[in-house]
Amino acid sequence: MSFLVLGLILLTVFASACAQLVLKLGVADQKMQAAMQSGIYESALAALFSPFIWFGLIIYALSVVLWLWVLSKVDLSVAYPFVGIGFVVTMLFGILLLNENVTPMRIIGTVLIVGGCVLVGKSA
User: Fold this and answer.
1) Which residue range(s) make up the domain with 50?
2) pLDDT of amino acid 124
3) How many CB atoms sit inside 10 A of residue 38's CB?
4) Is 1 a residue whose pLDDT tops 90?
5) Distance (Å, rounded) from C-alpha 54 to C-alpha 22?
6) Which of 2, 21, 36, 38 is most buried, judged by most C-beta within 10 A?
7) Number of domains in the chain
8) pLDDT confidence band for 122 (50 / 70 / 90)
């Protein structure tokens, strides 16, 4: 696997994790929370006008375009396990940016995922 392909895989995974973070910020907004208590129509309407939700969806769209390019260059069985690195990035976002509590079991599970990604990467 070339460094370009590996870099784009990692960029795609990072972009997807960023999209998750931005979407989380969008649904955590007070207006969105209030709308979600009111019902599905109000929730959809609030999401439609939420800049965070739109920004998160745009980041996702860009990551999909990159992912399509990646899939055109490497086997799916090689590329897809790297998606597991997104667990690490989102966990770090949760800890560092959202002040989430992360248990030792979650950390151990995430380390195991990273180990699997390394093994798959070395086999390519």
Assistant:
1) 3-123
2) 63
3) 11
4) no
5) 9
6) 21
7) 1
8) confident
Q: Are 90 and 71 a contacting pair, CB within 8 Å?
A: no
pLDDT tens digits, one per residue of 33-64: 888 888 898 888 898 999 999 999 999 999 99
Structure tokens at 41: 């129509």
Q: Are 56 and 23 in contact (CB under 8 A)?
A: yes
- What is the DSSP secondary-structure string of the chain? --HHHHHHHHHHHHHHHHHHHHHHHHHHSHHHHHHHHH-HHHHHHHHHT-HHHHHHHHHHHHHHHHHHHHHHHS-HHHHGGGGGHHHHHHHHHHHHHH-----HHHHHHHHHHHHHHHHHHHH-
How far from 49 is each of 20, 26, 40, 111, CA to CA, in Å?
18, 10, 14, 38
Q: Quick check: 96 and 19 in contact, CB under 8 A?
A: no
Q: How confident is the model at residue 72 (pLDDT cuts 50, 70, 90)?
A: very high
